[in-house]
Write a structure and sequence with these properties.
It is a single chain. This protein is α+β, with helices and mostly antiparallel strands and 230 residues long. The protein has two domains: 95 residues, Orthogonal Bundle (Muramoyl-pentapeptide Carboxypeptidase, domain 1); 117 residues, endopeptidase fold (from Nostoc punctiforme). The protein contains eight helices and ten strands. The strands form three sheets. Strands 5-10-6-7-8-9 form a six-stranded antiparallel beta sheet. It is elongated. The relative contact order is 0.15.
Length: 230
């Protein structure tokens, strides 16, 4: 699967016509889900942006646990499926669910071209550095540590964890050089790298250390969540 073949997210329709919403989805209906959770006291009013990130995941899971809909042992824990949506009074039809998501990215990039190239150069310079859980220095990086290091070296401060970076960034429909690309290796956004262009990204992988990888790599393409401009 190539990066360009990954569609904008919207509620997924099963053969029975029932919708489900998952981490990485973004649409006006995700915003309705967030509003419904906020009205029930499970989501912050500041987290109503139409993007199913880690905060929305936590809200869905908490709501499911409190209402005996699902739990950590359940197959659909964290997925806003028919039961979860129905209990919130949300019943989208196929036409509403299939409406394409709107573009979220602003019209003007805040980062200069020279800054972007500096971030990329710094990250690529660390190729061969081993992966170290919690690592934030050239002696060893985890994935978010590498990103934070490269941005900091170019005068930009980022949150420490992948989930925080996901919440901090501005969603883009397709990445440009210097944007972050996110993947779900565990529940929710749990791995990230810096997009280089030409369908490649630089990241610190647990089995590879800092390396450049194709977005078409089967392991990563199947786990791709989306891209964010920082």
């Amino acid at each position: 699967m190539s990066l360009l073949s990954i569609p904008a997210s919207y509620p997924h329709i099963s053969s029975t016509g029932n919708p489900s919403i998952n981490v990485g989805d973004r649409s006006s209906f995700v915003k309705e889900l967030q509003k419904g959770l906020a009205e029930k006291g499970y989501n912050s009013s500041s987290n109503i942006d139409g993007i199913f990130g880690s905060k929305t995941l936590e809200a869905v899971q908490s709501y499911q646990m409190s209402n005996d809909i699902s739990n950590p042992r359940g197959n659909f824990y964290g997925t806003a499926g028919p039961v979860t949506l129905g209990s919130l009074g949300l019943h989208p039809g196929k036409e509403q669910a299939a409406a394409p998501a709107t573009e979220v990215k602003g019209a003007t990039d805040s980062r200069t071209s020279s800054n972007t190239e500096g971030i990329i150069a710094e990250a690529k310079q660390q190729r061969g550095t081993p992966y170290v859980w919690g690592g934030t220095t050239p002696s060893g990086f985890d994935c978010s540590g590498l990103i934070q290091y490269a941005f900091e070296k170019n005068g930009e401060d980022l949150p420490r964890t992948v989930a925080e970076m996901w919440d901090h960034g501005e969603t883009v429909s397709s990445p440009e050089r210097g944007d972050l690309v996110f993947f779900e290796t565990r529940t929710g956004p749990s791995h990230a790298g810096i997009y280089l262009g030409n369908n490649e990204f630089v990241h610190s992988g647990a089995s590879t250390g800092v390396t450049v990888t194709s977005m078409d790599n089967p392991y990563w393409s199947e786990r791709y969540l989306g891209a964010k401009e920082m």
